[in-house]
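Entry: Aldehyde dehydrogenase family protein
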Amino acid sequence: MSESITVKELVERSKAAQEQFAFVTQEQADEAARAICKVVYDNAETLGVMAAEETRMGSRQDKITKCRMKSSLIWQSIKNEKTVGVINRLEDRKMLEVAKPLGAVACIIPSTNPVVTPMCNAAFALKTRNSVIFAPHPRAVECTKLLVEMFRAELATFGFPEDLVLGLEEVSIEDSSELMSLADVVVATGGPGMVKAAYSSGKPSLGVGQGNVQCIVDRDVDLSEAAEKILIGRSFDNGLICLGEQTAFVPEEKFANFVEKIKKHGGYYVESPEQVEKVRAGVFPNGGPMNREIVGLDAEQAGKIIGLEVPADTKAIVVKADGIGSTDVLCREKLCPVLTLYPYKDFEDGVAMMVENLDYEGKGHSIAVHSNTPEHVEYAAIQCAVSRVIVNQPAGTTGGGSPTNGFVATTTLGCGSWGNNSFSGNLSHKHFMNITRVGYPYEESYLPDPEMAWE
């Protein structure tokens, strides 16, 4: 931040703007939220390219697509929602629910989504009459700064306080920590360290957990369709998406056939033990943290660093794991287009291995199931400690909301207590509201007979 503006002053400005905005009409709140989404939609090419270039991660085209799709989906999902005044009348219980804003919301922005995450947070916040302050990632300072300028300029054209949207001008752990402690609420989308800091800020916080999406292919599905969908999810934005498929479990008698389908749809299958070890060592050097040099690179670029000659049109590098869970680091989350495969004997065994991988990393996030047997889908949902089960779709492009399913459109994915989060499911505008409940007496009431409770 510049020396002339302290974090405290920034928060004071944000709270003052929010107080002016707290009693606007539903139409005005909608106007502000729509403006936020439309700015990103209209400037998708500029913002998408800038995000890829500044962060040096991900696909330009996929980021452009993400800007357009997320802005449209999020606005469509909230535009008819009531967030001002009485939002619900529970006639059978003689109660009313009245929506109230939270205040000034501090939003910690990840390097993986420096445009659509602040857009999503701001749209939800303004829809519910809050203000937002962004703490950008060090690799996306200029991108976030431009976005804030765009948001503020658009709000000004409608006569709304520009300070409803603010951002830290410089990035430091100290400033981010101070912001979280002074704001009314914190939304933290980022790494485990930042999320933990948010929960330690002393303010109500909504954080996310780590992804490591496990995928299982049932015996009754079309292998080619499943392979294609898995590769779409794994390769989108060069594998940066936390919803991207990480490990796919395939029936053992269909494994070789599935590999051929993977190759057909753009997967580069690594067969020799020596090359598999190159992938393992290249992604997780010495079995430690992921190699930062390959985060967000496409398959060809990642292959060069790993030591493989991967064709330019490859969607993902695909390898068979040697073990499950902690016995093979390839079962961990990989923020690049590398997909792990593993055969299973029966469906229950496959699900058990998914559970073991989730216990190793990614518990609480998501799984993908390719199956035409509802009982198998439900079995996986019951056995796996996850917040989302994406069925017969590319998890990486649909688990955060899509026209193909009913998941709430969002960029922030809670993982429940399994992932040390305060909520499970997809973050929505509903998380940005306080609710006042009004209770009238029943027209007829009686003291309950305690004995009747046990009948």
